[in-house]
User: Fold this.
Amino acid sequence: MAAQYRNEKMIDTFSIGGDLPVRRLGFGSMRLTGKGIWGEPRDHAEAIRVLRRAVELGINFIDTADSYGPEVAERLIAEALHPYPVDLVIATKAGLVRPGPDQWRPNGRPEHLRTACEGSLHRLRLDRIDLFQLHRIDSAVPVEDQLGALKDLQAAGKIRHIGLSEVSVAQIERARKIVPIVTVQNKYSVAEQGAGAALESCEREGIGFIPWFPLGAGTLSAPGGALDQMAAELKITASQLALAWLLWRSPVMLPIPGTSSVAHLEENFAAASLKLDGRKLEELGKAA
Assistant:
């Protein structure tokens, strides 16, 4: 499917779950928090400006999680943007707890997921979460129990759609037997294409694919990086090239580059309007 799409006109929108249309370049809120994804942002005012500028630019898909901060990113989103624009889709996640900076531990116990959902609803000032994602499948808890808890929350009207994060094709297929899955969020970039099988599965099933670390945590945009030469030839930045490649790679791709800087946000957003030679992008993907 990807090879066929490369010859078609670029599609700039995707409908999550068939009823939530979003522009395919979103915003990830993880980088708004403190060092180690822990605590308040270094510059609170700038964090608020970033979120507001994202919406001004036309971004209508924001990804967050209760573990970012923890709880900090969700509160910042509500502070900056509530009451929300009618077309804004906010996706959050639960299933990871934070013992400290740069520390992450799975917790998929149903009671934890239920409590996490209530907390996210409160912090985001929402009556229902459009997209609630299981941040990780907890190997210590039966997957049926974890997804069953989300299914119950969906039936109760607390969440609209359900997504997964860091999963294999087999896990996606197993999950879909329990509850409809509308998105998958896996680590993926031009330099790290290990989740290609999961991406292809999402393409077949019309599931949105959200690549986290789409810029390789900054390594792809570093001076002397792998994308520098082609980006210089095209007179764009390496970050813009990396994002343009993702948007070209698949019609179900929903990159969510994050930043704590308005200037960097604007640079990233410009990638959505780039018109680049598909042959060059294909070469880039094979060479990375």
